[in-house]
């Protein structure tokens, strides 16, 4: 199973003050995804809306972003990744965005609730 994570959707699923340090929340998400990916032996890509400077890097998780920062650009990038996949049925998209859920399901991927993933990778 290959996972594609709607980064800010997963971060935003827990109102823990992430908005006071957006970059820190993104780094913490990638670190939690790294631990989880190693433990579960899964391939994980996390998609953010725009690149950060300096970039967030990982040897375990693919950290990517939309080519152009705009409303719903991360969603568009996730849909592009699903459509470009050799086997979209082998993809699970972590999001709770209803419109994105409809789009990726129509393209053949399955979805997983953002809050459930957040609780699995970063228990309270």
Explain what you see.
A five-stranded parallel beta sheet has the order 3-2-1-4-5, sandwiched between helices. By secondary structure, the protein is α/β, with parallel strands linked by helices. It has a single domain, classed as Rossmann fold, CATH 3.40.50.20. Helices cover 43% and strands 18% of the residues.
Topology:
Blueprint: E1 2-6, H1 7-11, H2 22-40, E2 43-48, E3 62-65, H3 73-84, E4 91-94, H4 98-106, E5 110-112, H5 114-121
Protein name: RNA-binding protein
Pfam families: NYN_YacP
Organism: Mycolicibacterium litorale
Q: What keywords describe this structure?
A:
124 residues, alpha/beta, Rossmann fold, five-stranded parallel sheet, 5 strands, 43% helix, RNA-binding protein, YacP-like
Q: What's the CATH class label? A: Alpha Beta
Q: Please write the string of helix (H) and strand (E) elements.
A: EHHEEHEHEH
What is the name of the CATH topology?
Rossmann fold
The percent of residues in helical segments reads 40-55%
Content of β-strand? 15-25%
Q: What strand order characterises the main sheet?
A: 3-2-1-4-5
Nearest-angstrom radius of gyration?
A: 13 Å
CATH architecture: 3-Layer(aba) Sandwich
Q: How would a textbook summarize the main sheet?
A: 5 strands, parallel
Structural class: alpha/beta
Number of helices: 5
InterPro entries: YacP-like
Protein name: RNA-binding protein
Pfam families: NYN_YacP
């Amino acid at each position: 199973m290959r996972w594609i994570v709607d980064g800010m959707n997963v971060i935003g699923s827990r109102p823990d003050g992430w908005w006071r340090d957006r970059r820190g929340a993104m780094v913490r998400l990638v670190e939690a995804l790294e631990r989880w990916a190693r433990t579960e032996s899964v391939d994980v890509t996390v998609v953010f809306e725009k690149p950060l400077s300096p970039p967030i890097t990982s040897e375990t998780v693919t950290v990517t972003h939309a080519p152009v920062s705009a409303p719903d650009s991360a969603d568009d990038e996730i849909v592009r990744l699903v459509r470009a996949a050799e086997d979209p049925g082998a993809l699970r998209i972590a999001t709770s965005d209803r419109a994105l859920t409809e789009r990726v399901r129509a393209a053949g991927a399955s979805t997983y609730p953002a809050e459930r993933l957040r609780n699995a990778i970063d228990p309270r």
